[in-house]
């Protein structure tokens, strides 16, 4: 038990140190990128730093498998150089028993990443998108989906508009049973439009069978209402920006994702991408554990055998390869080429079996 605790503490320290170092590097690179990206806008350096701090957690969350591999490599190379690994083997500890503590720590980190880091990243990335959009356009454009339908908000210097639709087509390019309320700056609502449908085109919405009410004090809005077979309403929204607002599962906390998936289905959207992401997040602890096993399969050897650099390179390359295959499987799952559970769980399970095979082969050798 004492030896397991020692290995667990060494591995946890390696992971924390590498996480801090890579977070600093990611933040520094992102700070330069944010400064360059907002150089044409009148934004203070403090706001750019704030955007950097909001965006950095998402990047660190994505490179957790790489951090796990590097932490495992640092652990076992350190144990090998101090001959602690040799002493452990001499005491009758097999490679698999020596891996119990790092594997448990990896599973705990994976569980914390899913239950705690995921909601933090979702909140920071959503806030980053809202702030970046407001800095670029002077207004915010957001989308919300609930049991009552689809809600959009678009804005610029001239005012804000709230759009509500009961349903839409699969790619959100056409909304049905639409209501648009426009608010002037510093005032209340000034216009209301109800339409049978709204199609998003370049520069605005094309409304079909629309009725327009001007909302003014002392004005009979219903008596002066206007009917239009087709009405064009300017908008700064694009189809890509609408999709980005609701189609990025990473911007939704995993605790709220099942409810959001149900709301997507009710609103008429395809929830397959979110279902794949949800299962992939649930499989993350297993994938992080496989990274520990893969890295240990190449580095649980004494340094006097030589070839340490090649072993480290092989471990990192194999880890990158498995990460690429996992991402590719997710894309296939999102496109409906393979089942959702296969897209999310096949790569982690295969990686664990591959690493165990390598470890058992080395032990038998």
Task: Give a quick set of tags describing it.
365 residues, alpha+beta, seven-stranded antiparallel beta sheet, 18% strand
Helix/strand order, N-terminal first: HHHHHHEEEEEEEHHHHHH
In whole angstroms, how far apart are the ends? Answer: 27 Å
Q: Sheet with the most strands?
A: 7 strands, antiparallel
Choose one word for the global shape.
elongated
Radius of gyration: 27 Å
Notes on the structure:
With 365 residues, the protein is an alpha+beta fold. The protein has twelve helices and seven strands. It has a seven-stranded antiparallel sheet. A hairpin with a 2-residue loop joins β2 and β3. α9 (272-282) packs parallel to α12 (340-364) and α10 (284-299) packs parallel to α12. The two termini are 27 Å apart. The mean pLDDT is 82.
